[in-house]
Amino acid sequence: MSAVALDPHTLAAPSPWVARWAAELPAGTSVLDVACGSGRHARWLAARGLQVTGIDRDAAALSGLAGIAQTIVADIEGNPWPLPAGATFDAVVVTNYLHRPLWPRLLAAVAPGGRLIYETFAVGNETVGKPSNPAFLLAPGELLDAVRGQLRVIGYEDGFLASPREAYVQRVCAVREPAGMVASRYAL
After folding, report:
1. Which CATH code fits 16-175?
2. Which residues of the chain are modeled with pLDDT < 50?
């Protein structure tokens, strides 16, 4: 796919966390956008010249990404992982989505030198809105635990956001060390 020019007035703004950690990715970088919905991040990433693959179970939502990103319609919670074994990406983006059994797949999809950019709701969110079900809220430090021993954390936050709407979130950006590099402790 080639870079796509988008009208910034019709494009939903990306998460500031995604924008921060994806801004430096060079054109041509491969990105997997998991549970991408209608493609808020896929569109933003593609407009920057990145090669985006979006996965979601909602075919109608994905239809709007034709010509912008490669799309895969898949129920990633109820069916087998839709990507070939060993498929990796320079970046894996996940926002506002949590299905813990997928963490091994998501981490395995990060190529050497690549990064995981993950942001979703955390405990405390039940006091300000939805989601409020504990099954969909990260426990304190849970994202750190998910990447421990596999990726090196380069950014992490856990707390309250006042805008764009009140929410408790946890977010991480973590990299897979290139081959030959010694994994280090968390860099917070």
Report:
1. 3.40.50.150
2. 1-10, 183-188
